[in-house]
Amino acid sequence: MRLQNKTALITGAASGIGEACAELFAKEGAQVVAADLDLPAAETVAERIRGNGGDALAASIDITKRQECIALVEQSIARYGKLDILVNSAGVTPRKAPPEWDLEQRWDWVVEVNLKGSMLMSHAAVQAMKPVRHGSIVNLASIIGLVGYAEGISDGFNPYPHSKGGVVQMTRDMGVALAKSGIRVNALCPGFTYTNLTKSLTDDADMRMKLESLHPMGRLGEPIEIAFAALYLASDESSFVTASCLAVDGGYTAQ
Amino acid sequence: MTAAIPLSEEKKTINGRLQGKVALITGGALGIGAACGELFAAQGASIAIADINLDAAKALASKIEAAGSQAIAMPLDVTRDIQCGNAADETRRKFGSIDILVNSAGVSARNIGNDMTFEQRWDRVIDVNLKGSVLMARHAVRHMQQQKNGSIVNIASIRGLIGYPDFMTDGFHPYPHSKGGVVNMTRDMAVGLARSGIRVNAVCPGFTHTDMTNAVSNDPELYKRIVGLHPIGRFAQPIEIARAALFLASDEASFVTGACLVIDGGFTAQ
Question: Which of B160, B163, B162, B200 is nearest to B180 (CA)?
Answer without folding.
Answer: B160
